[in-house]
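Extended Data, panel c. Modelled sequence:
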Amino acid sequence: MTISKLVSNKEFKQMMSRKVYAENHEQQQSMKSTLLKAVEKAYGERYWRLKEGTRQAIDMMCWFASERGFYFAKDHYFADRFDVSDKTIRNVTKMLREAGVMFTIYRRSSTQNGRSAPVHLFVDHPYFSHWEEQLELSLCQTDCQAEKDETPCRSKDESAKKDSTSYISLLKSFKTLRKEEHVLDHTFTPSYVPKEFIQAVSPFFDDAKVIDRLWRKTQRAYRTSSLNLSQEELLFIVMKSFKDTIFAHKHNRIKGSFDGYFFGTLRNQFKKVQEQSNQTSLETAVGQEQQYSFAIKKAIRTEQLPEWFVQQRQGNDQVVSDTDHDELFLIEKAKLEAILREKQHSLR
């Protein structure tokens, strides 16, 4: 929600002097993930249809806000850095304000009695309650125009004297915006989702919509793998990938979203199975080729041997070694050469 609260330079310096909530990189990464999850929930499935540059800009907003609960970088900064338009960034902040994820206030201009750069506060940050009290956000007017009166909001008692209908409680409106719809538990999951998958996921996400979304991601990853697996084989890989993702989530190893990490783990598992399958097929083909070549090499063409040798071999039960076979062949060859010489001599 955008409110016409103007922050003086002194107040802004006090905000900047506030001790950071995330004191190290790990804490900052964890808080960024918390804020990013609120953004993803506000967008729903549309979040993954946003351009990559837009998602990167949102990620950077959450990173900036992880320290003290707000950021004040201008629209053109994100637009230039992530190659998107200023309008795209404005649409993002507008959407998050309407969803109750973000509040926007303004710094007072140092040259005139008007507003300057915006300051965006994330509601899900632990410091938001502090800013709400310090800046008296719950007493500010929500529908006043900045062009008419660029002054800080008056107290609730003073404003009620002038127009009791022109002011509302910001906190009450926030609760209305953040009111969640009824969540269906895992028993409402569609029938095409395997029961084994539901049983494995429901202890962590007892939400039919979330379970269905995760299963759709498994199907998408499976289709891109070009594998032909049975239901049991597929479920085995899916369960292993889900457990790996849960382990990474519990140890704060997931930098982005849970769904994205789960999808990437699935693709890596399917890739390993594909590589193992290709290697097995190659080894099988090589083995068959070697067996075929060995069989050809050991085959003996009996029609090329002399008749007396064939008869002798058939009547002899003793195995003839390769060396004896070569000697007999040379003897037979010498006999044939002698017979040919005698016939040539008689013809002369």
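Residues 302-347 form one domain. This feature is highlighted in the accompanying rendering.
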